[in-house]
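Deliverable D5.2: sample structural annotation.
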Amino acid sequence: MFESIAEHYDQSGVPWFQPIARTLVELLEPRAGERFLELGSGRGAATLPLAEALGPHGAVDALDISPSMVRLLGEQLDRSGVGNVHLALGDAADPQPPGTAYDGIVSSLVLFFIPDPVAALARWRDLSRRGGRVGISTFPVPTGRLRELLDLVTEFAGPAPSPRGESPFDSDEGVEELFSRAGYSVVRTTTVAHAVAFEDVAQFRAWTMGTVLRRVWADTDPAGHAEILARAEQVLARERDDRGRMSLDVPIRYTLASP
């Protein structure tokens, strides 16, 4: 999936992955000179703020499973003149980075894609130095208008496949339990609501292509898309920001742990 959408991933003009990842980086408090591992680097939402925070004497080893994501991020790093990032192809489920004993490991909106998250977290723990920290971002159970939009997807595209049944990602306690089972000693969770603003429904549609909402376009008859957009606009237009843009609050769960 990520290989197929890499060219357009996070390119809608709507700040989305960047503020989520930036908050995760800030919560982990990277210090100049430290060494971090990023798993699922995508188009660099966490990579760039990490590289800046760590400075020229620090380093980021960034891995992604999609060759196109790696290529596109590499081109961006070259254009930006960022020299403290080592970028490579790699699987977050069982990463094989160039080093170990990382001061921090960052993985934004990735863990819920991994078939065995406990095994992955245990592997990440093995790559961390004693006293290091690991941080992830995930989605809480949606409520409010976000829930209405997801219900719209279900109405038109049908329910999303749920091969795992009840998910540990349904609650803070469930995610923290994953870390505890993987051997982490200190785990804490905080939730931050990110406001996502759209100039119009066309921009909303472009934004959805990088989210789970993309199913509403991929799995439905194009003849019904105008109605879907009209219904979505009714939901979004109930709240606007100070610039008059349609605004949607999306809560993000941040789970931080120490090995």
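Annotation notes: The mean pLDDT is 94. The two ends are 31 Å apart (CA to CA).
The annotation will be released with the project's public dataset once the embargo ends.
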